[in-house]
């Protein structure tokens, strides 16, 4: 009688679960109490036999992963995985195939900007980045799939931290957790020496403007004019976050901020600071204008010299970065009407591309007086600063001034 009850219970649970073939064996083994003997093999939609035989479950993951797949079916299979709270994942059902659908999805997101755009997702890796994402309630909601090495979970010091972080997922959050071999984790990563954990996260929504009635009285915007180096872009995003920048505007030619290398350089700042990509200089002007920026007064493009008589901005006068009033205070010479029409007194810092500097459109705007220019004074014989260094120096001066007021 007990045997008949076990068989019936097993069949009913299997029909309800209908686990997918990629990480579903984790869910399946978690669904079956250990006292039910492995008497039933779910043929059809499941990858293999379930019911307490952990080795069979792990083998099913490998077998399913080795089947020929189109990319569309890989993506569909990956997103059909059963979502689990981290407290429910099975440490013993280990993903071991580097050819699995999960690995294919991670590799596609790492290597293809188009795929990141289509799926609105990217890859984050490393203990610091992933744990910081999981610790923050806001960024935690963006996490969709975590792959963690079993050896990392078994580590005496790291293991408890990982389990605690993975246990913070909300019960209703659509997230999958896969325990995998070191080889699988390495295949899902972009770095040469992975740290045992990697994740897929959704991209935040683009910045739409300051919140009405918000705390930012004089917002500061950072415009990246075609910066293409992921390291420089990541560094500037970190500095922008540290200095309280309202949002970062990305001009054409700028690096894909969701490139895994740029994300690592930014150390998670990419998910915490609002971002907005614009189509061209005219679109940039329109967007900033809608945010309350008065371009001919509040937009400062970083140039290499104090006097641009020999440069592309000949005829313009550039202020040293510490001579600009970044505090957002109203000019004492402004009329009452002008003050009332400029309640936010927003400011903009624009950093040009490594090497060439500012784009031709922005250089032309500086020459014509439509926008202003700013520079970092240097000793004679130094041609220019690194773009990230220059931008960071200016941003921290804005923080110093704004902090005093």
Average pLDDT rating: 77
Q: Which class best fits the helix and strand makeup?
A: alpha/beta
Domain count: 2
CATH H-tier superfamily of the largest domain = Ribosomal protein L30/S12
Strand order of the largest sheet: 7-6-5-10-8-11-9
Share in β-strands: 5-15%
The rounded distance between the terminal residues' Cα atoms is: 80 Å
For this structure, the CATH topology of the largest domain is 60s Ribosomal Protein L30, Chain: A
Structure description:
The protein is of the alpha/beta class. It has two domains: 189 residues, Ribosomal protein L30/S12 (60s Ribosomal Protein L30, Chain: A, 2-Layer Sandwich); 185 residues, 3-Layer(aba) Sandwich (Alpha/beta knot). Helix content is 40%, strand content 13%. The strands form two sheets. It has a seven-stranded parallel β-sheet, sandwiched between helices.
Structure, briefly:
Helices cover about 40% and strands about 15% of the residues. With about 400 residues, it is of the alpha/beta class. It has a seven-stranded parallel beta sheet with strand order 7-6-5-10-8-11-9, sandwiched between helices. It has a four-stranded mixed beta sheet with strand order 1-4-2-3, with helices on both faces.
């Amino acid at each position: 009688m007990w045997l008949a009850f076990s068989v019936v219970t097993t069949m009913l649970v299997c029909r309800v679960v209908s686990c997918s073939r990629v990480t579903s064996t984790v869910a399946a083994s978690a669904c079956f109490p250990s006292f039910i003997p492995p008497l039933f093999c779910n043929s059809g939609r499941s990858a293999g036999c379930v019911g307490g035989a952990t080795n069979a479950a792990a083998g099913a993951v490998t077998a399913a992963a080795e089947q020929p797949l189109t990319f569309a079916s890989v993506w569909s299979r990956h997103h059909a995985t059963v979502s689990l709270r981290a407290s429910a994942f099975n440490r013993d059902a280990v993903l071991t195939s580097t050819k699995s659908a999960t690995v294919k999805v991670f590799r596609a997101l790492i290597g293809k900007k188009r795929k990141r755009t289509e799926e609105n997702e990217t890859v984050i890796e490393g203990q610091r980045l992933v744990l910081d994402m999981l610790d923050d309630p806001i960024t935690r909601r963006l996490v969709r799939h975590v792959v963690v090495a079993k050896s990392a979970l078994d580590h005496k010091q790291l293991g408890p931290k990982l389990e605690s972080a993975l246990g913070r997922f909300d019960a209703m959050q659509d997230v999958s957790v896969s325990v995998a071999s070191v080889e699988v984790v390495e295949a899902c990563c972009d770095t040469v020496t992975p740290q045992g954990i990697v994740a897929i996260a959704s991209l935040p929504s683009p910045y739409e403007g300051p919140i009405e009635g918000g705390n930012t009285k004089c917002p500061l915007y950072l415009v990246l004019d075609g910066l293409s180096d992921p390291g420089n872009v990541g560094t500037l995003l970190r500095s922008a976050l540290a200095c309280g920048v309202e949002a970062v505007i990305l001009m054409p030619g700028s690096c894909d901020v969701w490139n895994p290398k740029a994300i690592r350089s930014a150390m998670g700042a990419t998910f915490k600071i609002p971002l907005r990509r614009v189509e061209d200089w005219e679109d940039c002007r329109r967007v900033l204008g809608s945010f309350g920026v008065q371009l001919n007064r509040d937009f400062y493009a970083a140039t290499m010299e104090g006097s641009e008589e020999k440069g592309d901005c000949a005829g313009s006068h550039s202020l040293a970065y510490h001579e600009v009033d970044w505090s957002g205070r109203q000019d004492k010479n402004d009329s009452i009407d002008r003050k009332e029409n400029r309640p936010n007194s927003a400011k903009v810092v624009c950093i040009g591309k490594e090497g060439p500097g500012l784009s031709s459109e922005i250089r032309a705007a500086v020459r014509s007086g439509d926008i202003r220019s700013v520079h970092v004074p240097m000793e004679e014989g130094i041609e220019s600063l690194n773009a990230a260094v220059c931008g960071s120096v200016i941003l921290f001066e804005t923080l110093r001034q704004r902090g005093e007021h």
